[in-house]
């Protein structure tokens, strides 16, 4: 399967990429032609709407009919399958929940690759295993099209307001074409390197984020038990070397900051389940590359445990609550 | 011992503190009277010299004759014991390497308490167990004097340039008197709360610092193995939620930043042994207060292991090197 | 304090131990003279009763009057303080909940050392920090008496049936005298080496026990989720290299074994709080000796967290339950 | 790819398995017909030789010509590819180093499935991801053949002496046919349940083994530093609740036991790299099933780190050495 695909692919490589480059030129002249969008969930829906707002006709698909219905009302054209999207648009963005879904949408029996046009630009904004992104890129390239991974940071709010950050991996000369579309949804579009590095940047950031958040939570809890006022402790950390995004921008202790999930009973924000998923991807990547990640690995376990103990839907800063003494206990 | 001290102390408490307060008034009028300084090591020496520079006569002691000799050349008066310092100065700063040393300097047979004057202000800038600070404070108070814990952040460089940060715990009305002296050595003097909270703030900060540093090291290593350029990865983290002091100010990866220990083969900076020591204090405090600190605890183990594997004298950011594949392996 | 005690003690050492040895001879001839017992809790009560059963008159003390009352009904003599016990018996066993309690009972204002007779044998069966045992031994020796640490393994059941295991540290020539008494309460009395090694053996065993238990719990849980029958998995582990006491004698998965706490909703057995306490002692010892203990340290954190989340009074094998998905979640 | 395979497979399922069952009957009558063996490495070579010793003609393949040459001298027939093996034998055992190799040997362009006969019995003794075993089983079943996973425990020595333990997953009615062959190489052949459970049992055992080994190493090291004699400590643990296979059968401390790798500078035995690989499989399985495995995960990291620090080829009990103070440091 995957392993074999890899081998047969390298010979084909050179001739195909020449075709792809030619096609690119045509594409970039043909702005405002229809853009495909597959995956109309919490994130995909507002992202696709921002494309509409910028004047792009959108041809969309989602496995859930309700998701399609809601989006159709916005003026988009709905199709029957990823393959149909590929027939009608030569620029496609996919926003899917998992590696397995991405594999199916691209290579499935009604997948994009069944009808993809030569020279098409396929941008996957899902957060998935970078090794899967690389496999998909090879399959796409075999069809004479171009694949880029472009996962996002920023949640539903940023998706709505068009303030996402895209981390983009893929052939550098295609980056401008991708950026043209992604800019409609983004505050930042960062080129990270070859295919898979967008995913790599995303999961690296989220691994360090998780470590910083748990570290902040246990540090704040320890300080409070040692008699420090939480606001004062946060202030001291933030002017010192303990400073991090979780301490100065998203503090997990209720009462320290306003407008963050800890001020709202850990509602909203970035759910523990999603963090556990991203940390699972980080661990897969660490295992594949034989990279020791002791704190990242333990952080994964802690979020995994939190999912099992009733914190699945709370914001990931609820680890502060998880580490505290239960009042009921 | 300690437990018993605690009990007998509370009765004495009220009458003593009245004396102390009275004495304070006298002290604050008597600026530029001699200041005692005990502990003339890498940190203590430049700290005491900054007191001299600000015009304070200094009466000093260190167990190592060479340390005394060097300091005497700066114009200070050297005495034979902590007790002698206490006889000649009613404001004393101590800067010692461990809890055991602090206990001996204060309560030993030639310790400060043998000859301390009523109303004296004793400021301990050592980084020690906050529980020991509290015990010392009680012993000091029994003698009618005042104790404050005031550990520092910032290394030898900051000590020389007078740019330390002091985190101060103790009776609030004494804070101004302490600040008068500490300001000679500091960029920041922060009041943290009752006795022991200076230490608490210090060890909390350093625990989160260690977590952030190890987290940054393993994240950067993972990203590099996944094909990301280290400078680009650092840039992405620093504009995202993975940002922390260790990623944006003290990056552990050689070549990412200039002027940090990673750019100089991990020479200088904050040694792994010292970090392991501070994390040991954090763990003691966590155990005493029954606070779960999973990442802090694992960070302690990692720095402990590094000390055993030849990294003891390198800067603590060398954890990046520790996690990497040995080139020789 | 402690540090200073250490120094002044070494000179005194030789002359004292000669006295102690002489006294030993007299003691061992005077069997069935009264034995002191301090600490009549869940463990101490049945232990002291076994001494009575073996014909030893017992002179006892506990801070809780009810504990004394109950024991008095068994025919023992109750005194007013540890000092009084020391006045009436030259062999004393102490069974106390913490280091702080032991320090007070030995060195407090009404402590044993206030009235201890030369040549007395003081056996501490508490589980405390080995460093504290060593300090107490030095104080005791200064009075011309002998101190041994002799913590137990085995719970309340073993205490009742006289089937405890004692791990004994102290001067080897005193071991027989200690064994004479301990045998009344024990299935095994093991000599471990100099003072403190009894504690060391105890906390080492319990640290490895905790690691084995958590390891067994997470392994069984993983196997079950992968489709294995729990009984079959336990059988496979127990005939393979995964075998450990927690898998073959005290399996944490309900339904795998009978007569263990997991078969009884984790009632009885060895409470999570006690395990967390012993792991805290292990961590203190590891920090003091700069020994890396990554799994021991993480196990401490897990039991600490369990105490905070409602598992404090359950048997420590309830970690299996802690790691599982909540049915209510 | 994998995901799609899964779907299309279920319809085919029933009719195929009827064929397979019929074929089984024929197979079990035709004992001593040729047996295929693919993978003639350190383990595979002695395993296949044991089949020869028991009178089975062996048709073999390995990608390395030298491995084939050596085996040919034993009297086996060597073929050009896995497909050729499948053409000449309807019972095949595979013993391969990784999931990727197994995928290639079964589904590659010259793989077994290219020429497998209906009713063939394919037994994979590689240690691989149980999810991959399940995928392979589905592909095999589509061809009307039977797949079982049967990883082994026991190293090269047990492979030579025919004392391996096989943990077998697959359809229960095929177990006897598999056992007939495996018994030639085994002391134990254990039926674990449906396809994948053999792998599950194997990786569960090895995860608990790793935890027990690291736990034993850190406990022994701590005890030694606290003044205990290592042999005595091992004895105490082994009669107490700390007992495990790593303490009583394979003690990692030099001088405690004879005939184990720790007595021979950690030569031989089960290499750190292999343990790291198995723990990686365990972590993949834990992530896939969302099972928290805090100690298993940290153990993985520790063996990963050891591989990076020069312990890759030493026995996995060398973790004792890894945790100790370097003499050179």
From TrEMBL, chains A, B, C, D:
<feature type="domain" description="6-phosphogluconate dehydrogenase NADP-binding">
    <location>
        <begin position="35"/>
        <end position="193"/>
    </location>
</feature>
<comment type="similarity">
    <text>Belongs to the HIBADH-related family. 3-hydroxyisobutyrate dehydrogenase subfamily.</text>
</comment>
<keyword id="KW-0496">Mitochondrion</keyword>
<dbReference type="InterPro" id="IPR006115">
    <property type="entry name" value="6PGDH_NADP-bd"/>
</dbReference>
<dbReference type="GO" id="GO:0006574">
    <property type="term" value="P:L-valine catabolic process"/>
</dbReference>
<keyword id="KW-0809">Transit peptide</keyword>
<feature type="domain" description="3-hydroxyisobutyrate dehydrogenase-like NAD-binding">
    <location>
        <begin position="196"/>
        <end position="322"/>
    </location>
</feature>
<keyword id="KW-0101">Branched-chain amino acid catabolism</keyword>
<dbReference type="InterPro" id="IPR011548">
    <property type="entry name" value="HIBADH"/>
</dbReference>
<keyword id="KW-0560">Oxidoreductase</keyword>
<dbReference type="GO" id="GO:0051287">
    <property type="term" value="F:NAD binding"/>
</dbReference>
<feature type="active site">
    <location>
        <position position="202"/>
    </location>
</feature>
<dbReference type="GO" id="GO:0050661">
    <property type="term" value="F:NADP binding"/>
</dbReference>
<dbReference type="GO" id="GO:0008442">
    <property type="term" value="F:3-hydroxyisobutyrate dehydrogenase activity"/>
</dbReference>
<dbReference type="InterPro" id="IPR015815">
    <property type="entry name" value="HIBADH-related"/>
</dbReference>
<dbReference type="InterPro" id="IPR036291">
    <property type="entry name" value="NAD(P)-bd_dom_sf"/>
</dbReference>
<dbReference type="InterPro" id="IPR013328">
    <property type="entry name" value="6PGD_dom2"/>
</dbReference>
<protein>
    <recommendedName>
        <fullName>3-hydroxyisobutyrate dehydrogenase</fullName>
        <ecNumber>1.1.1.31</ecNumber>
    </recommendedName>
</protein>
<comment type="pathway">
    <text>Amino-acid degradation; L-valine degradation.</text>
</comment>
<keyword id="KW-0520">NAD</keyword>
<dbReference type="GO" id="GO:0005739">
    <property type="term" value="C:mitochondrion"/>
</dbReference>
<dbReference type="InterPro" id="IPR029154">
    <property type="entry name" value="HIBADH-like_NADP-bd"/>
</dbReference>
<dbReference type="InterPro" id="IPR008927">
    <property type="entry name" value="6-PGluconate_DH-like_C_sf"/>
</dbReference>
<dbReference type="Pfam" id="PF03446">
    <property type="entry name" value="NAD_binding_2"/>
</dbReference>
<dbReference type="InterPro" id="IPR002204">
    <property type="entry name" value="3-OH-isobutyrate_DH-rel_CS"/>
</dbReference>
<dbReference type="Pfam" id="PF14833">
    <property type="entry name" value="NAD_binding_11"/>
</dbReference>
